[in-house]
Amino acid sequence: MKYDFRLLRTGFHDAAFNMGFDEAILESVAAGVQKPTLRLYAWKPAAVSIGFFQGLRDEVDTDSCAAHGVDVVRRITGGGAVFHQAEITYSIVIPETSPLAPKSILDSYGILCGGVIEGLRGLGLESSFAPINDIVSGGKKVSGNAQTRKKNCLLQHGTVLLDVDVELMFDLLKVPAEKAKGKLIQDVKERVTGVNALLGRTVDYSEAEAAMASGFSKALDAFLTESGPSAVELDRAGEIARTKFADPSWTGRR
Amino acid sequence: MNVQAIGKPVGAKLIRLSASIEKEIVTAISIRGDFFAIPEEGFERVEARLPGTELGKFAARFDELLTEEGVEPYGISGAAVAEVLDDAIRAAVGLK
Questions:
Q1: Which candidate from B6, B30, B35 shows the least CB-CB separation from A78?
Q2: What number is the ipTM of this complex?
Q3: Are A197 and A165 in contact (CB under 8 A)?
Q4: Is B36 close to A76, i.e. CB distance below 8 A?
Q5: Is residue A252 in a domain?
Q6: Which residue of B has its CA nearest to A82?
Q7: Distance between CA atoms of B34 and A134, rounded to whole angstroms?
Q8: Which burial class, exposed, middle or buried, applies to B12 when counting CB atoms under 10 A from its CB (0-12, 13-18, 19+)?
Q9: Rounded to 5 degrees, what angle do the CA atoms A161, A92, B45 make?
Q10: CATH code assigned at A66
Q11: Which of A23, A62, B24, B64 has its CA 20 to 30 A from that of A10?
Q12: B38 chain-A contacts, CB cut-off 8 A
């Protein structure tokens, strides 16, 4: 294996903490305190994350989210709104000096999405990269990914959908006025799917977690050393969650 | 005149736009959507520098500012934003 990585399996957390955790890892890798890191995680409660440039009120029915007990968070990465429910999420942080983080954003998406593609292969699914930031299987989107560059590091996070509840998703997200909700739900059902539907069986979180760890290791030629986050990272994750991602002025900044 | 529009020009992601226009000059603008622009803070500086831009020079000025701020855009461009802005104005004056 060519590249040394730290593997964090951090399980289920709320939305603000999850986003704070990714940023805390970015800080520690940027400071040279930690190795490049692959983190695997999930969301509890379920959450809607919106892209950095999206308007909260454009995209999210916040009353419906509150009624369903669904968190809402703004990411530091661009891209679209995502309903995080039955899925596995990954984040990967690499110094920009790494060959795995070429200057071309598109090229780096291609390299890092290879980890998801290989992970899906381990579950028995063939899939392919659909630039700029999606992965499709059987002609349908099964993974969305988003990347940013900060502090001389690349951070990419993404989801692998296990199941998709499109009806609930469109209770939580705003539907453009010109589109009929029923038609939109049908369109999305035709374009987006989950691993379970594709495989015809249920993949639980732990199986997906193992497959993704193995997939990233293989695709990136990475030796993964599993550990826990440092105490400093946990403290910073909590602090960033409180002061940024749980702050309504951040969530509603657009 | 205040205008707003949603568009997905060819080659672009979804772009939502609210703007104020006075005498063919953009006096305020908010650009939202599911595009990417890295660094994100650089894009916000671009957005903040757009007021004062003539409508006819908007696309070129947007691209120029992206370059000046060192922003790498994906799913958004001066031409794409100008197209949505044009749609917004046409809708506001009843041409669409």
A1: B35
A2: 0.95
A3: no
A4: no
A5: no
A6: B34
A7: 13
A8: buried
A9: 100
A10: 3.30.930.10
A11: A62
A12: 78, 105, 147-149
**Mean pLDDT within A26-42:** 98
B38 touches chain A (CB under 8 A): yes
pLDDT digits (tens, 9 = 90+) for A196-226: 999 999 999 999 999 999 999 999 999 999 9
* Contact (CB<8Å) B34/A58: no
Give A81's contacts in chain B (Cβ within 8 Å).
Answer: 34
**pTM score, two decimals?**
0.94
Q: Which residues of B touch A133 (CB under 8 A)?
A: 36
Q: Show the tokens assigned to A152.
A: 């001389």
CATH number of B2-92: 3.30.390.50
Q: Which residue has the tokens 């993949």?
A: A203
Q: And the tokens for B60? A: 């070129």
Report the C-alpha gap between B27 and B25 in whole angstroms.
6
Q: Is residue A132 part of a domain?
A: yes
Residue A185 pLDDT grade (very low, low, confident, very high; cuts 50, 70, 90) = confident
Domain extent for A15? 3-246
Residue A251 lies in a domain: no
pLDDT exceeds 80 at position A40: yes
Q: Report if residue A219 sits inside a domain.
A: yes
CB atoms near residue A169 (< 10 Å): 17
